[in-house]
Structures are given as C-alpha cells and as structure tokens.
C-alpha cells in the first residue's frame, strides 16, 4: 500500500413523495416528462421541512443503526433502470446548466456534448462511483444501474480511476484537473469530493444484502479489491463535511427523484453521515 500525503483543508460555497414500485421503467416514461435538470430550472427544490414531514418521516429522531435501517427502508422503494436506460437518464441528471446540449463530467469537470458518449478515448461513459467490482454486482439492474452513483466521465479518466478506493494523495490524473491517483486510491477534484462521499454512503444504506444484491459497506482502508467494501471512510466523512451539497448536486437529486423515485438522504441531510458513522 502506498503512502498517502494529507492536503490542506479546503471548502467551496454551500426534494412529491410517493414511492414507486421497484420495477423496470422504459426511458420513454421520463424522457418526455421534463424532470428537473441539473440547473434546477423550472423545478424549485422541495423544502426540507416538507420532506421531513413526508419522505423522511420514518427516520426522524433516530440515530446509528436505527437511522441507517430506517433510511434503507425508505430509499429501497425505487424504480429500477436497465443499464441501457442509464445513458438517457444521465443526460438529464448531469445536464450542464450553462449548456443544455452537454453533460458535466464528474472528475474532469468538463462540459461535453450529450451525443459524444461511447467507448472512444475522448467519449464520455458511465462511471460507477462505487466500483462495480467491489461486490461484483456488474451492470445488472440494481446497484449496477442505480443512477445515484452513476455519473458521466471521460472514458480514459474512468479507466484511470478503475476500481480504486477513495483517499487523499497521489499524482495528477490526465484530463481530470485537480484529481489525483496512486496505486491503491483515487482523489477527486475538490469541487466534487463531498458528492463522491455522499454517493458512496448512499450505496451503503441502499444495498444491505437483500434482493440478491451484496451488502455494501464503507470501511477505513483502501485496496479493498472485490470485497463489497469501499474506503477510506474517515476521509469520506471529512469530504462530506468540507464540501456540502451545492445547487448542482441538489438539483441532480431532484432529477433522480423524478426518474428513480428515491433520494440520496445525505444530500438532503448531510449531518446524518455523522449520526450513522460515528
């Protein structure tokens, strides 16, 4: 395991609610429905109080494992997509608010044409933030197609990240300014560190070993290989604190709620990270 250096602290400036049956939905069902875009235009964010009175009612007042279990029950009520449907979903969830013809790439931060996707070196493809080999769930419907952790990314940067765990340190990543990697971990650019942490922790709450899916859990190590684990938890918690949800991430959560009918609770309530993982 390679040594990891610590970097200086940083910050950046600082969802309705009927759960759908967990069945496959055709893209046509939402492609023309104009759910909120990444810019949030025309779709005001749902007030937190309204969510707490409805969507999160069963989780309020809980902490630790009780809170985690309550959130699992809530977010498990979702509509599932096929892997092919993810292409069109990401064109909605990750739309560039400055250019509706483009998506914003997660690690690179680059705005790229929605049509420029595929397997070419400069195309964008579907990055599994919780690496699909960590639990060996592949791209089958379920964790492999959950758009809460699937993001557009440059194909070569996606390859460079591979199935690395997350931690601080490493060498600069080509085509991903601000991102770094070494032999056993990947550090995303500062602007999405909290986003990455909240996606990983959502997966740990959503997938608890039921429905034939693996039990995904964060741990405080790297080089997890094919184990259903992702690290480094202590660093992810720091990233969640230092990089709170911004307008893009909140609007993305809204757009996913319009498609998948479930939410990432750590975008709505970042403080719940510390309540579960003390």
General description of the model:
The chain has 278 residues and is α+β, with helices and mostly antiparallel strands. The protein is built from 10 helices and 11 strands. The chain has helices spanning 28-31, 48-53, 64-75, 83-93, 155-161, 193-206, 233-242, 247-260, 265-268, 272-276; strands spanning 95-96, 99-104, 111-113, 124-128, 150-154, 165-166, 171-173, 176-181, 185-187, 217-218, 229-230. It has a 4-stranded mixed sheet, covered by helices on one side. Strands 1-2-3 form a 3-stranded antiparallel sheet. The protein has a two-stranded antiparallel ribbon with strand order 4-5. α6 (193-206) crosses α7 (233-242). It is globular and about 45 Å long. The two termini are 26 Å apart. Mean pLDDT is 87; it is low at 1-45.
**How many strand units?**
11
H/E element sequence: HHHHEEEEEHEEEEHEEHHHH
Oligomer class:
single chain
| Averaged pLDDT | 87
Task: Report the portion of residues in β strands.
Answer: 5-15%
**Overall helicity:** 25-40%
Alpha-beta classification: alpha+beta
Radius of gyration: 17 Å
Total number of helices: 10
The low-pLDDT segments are 1-45
Query: How would you sum up the major sheet?
Result: 4 strands, mixed
- Arrangement of strands in the largest sheet: 6-9-8-7
Distance between the termini: 26 Å
Which shape, going by the Cα principal axes?
globular
